Amino acid sequence: MASEGEKTKGSEELSSVREDLRQIRSDIQELLKDARSESGQRLGELRDRIGTALHEKSEAVQKGAHAVKDSVEHSVDQLKHTAQEHPFATAAIAMCSGMIVGAWIRGKHR
């Protein structure tokens, strides 16, 4: 059987281990708090960077869309102007185009 001295020593060691475990648990909780705080901060920074990049790309797409729209409108205006200046040539081109498309469609169905 264990003597009183051994029991006291074992009890002290057990208390010491318990205290060490409490301290480890406390340290882990502090580390988790720090990690959550750090990841939240990084997440916020990442969200801001993504938002800025999306905004910049959105503006670039809008500028490109406006440029395409302006180009198409300019081409349509030129086509209208050309058709008004040369009505007989425009009618001949339209007639020839219609004949070519008609012959192509007829050829597909044979």
Mind explaining what this structure looks like?
With 110 residues, the chain is mainly alpha-helical. It has one domain. The chain has two helices and no strands. It has helices at 4-85, 87-108. It is rod-shaped and about 125 Å long. The mean pLDDT is 83.
Top keywords for this entry?
single chain; 110 residues; mainly alpha; 95% helix
SSE arrangement:
Blueprint: H1 4-85, H2 87-108
Short description, anyone?
This protein is an all-alpha fold. The protein has helices spanning 4-85, 87-108. 95% of the residues lie in helices and 0% in strands.
Distance between the termini: 110 Å
Portion in beta strands: under 5%
> Approximately how much helix is present in the residues?
over 70%
- Number of helical segments? 2
Low-confidence region ranges = none
Q: Mean of the pLDDT scores? A: 83
Major sheet description: none
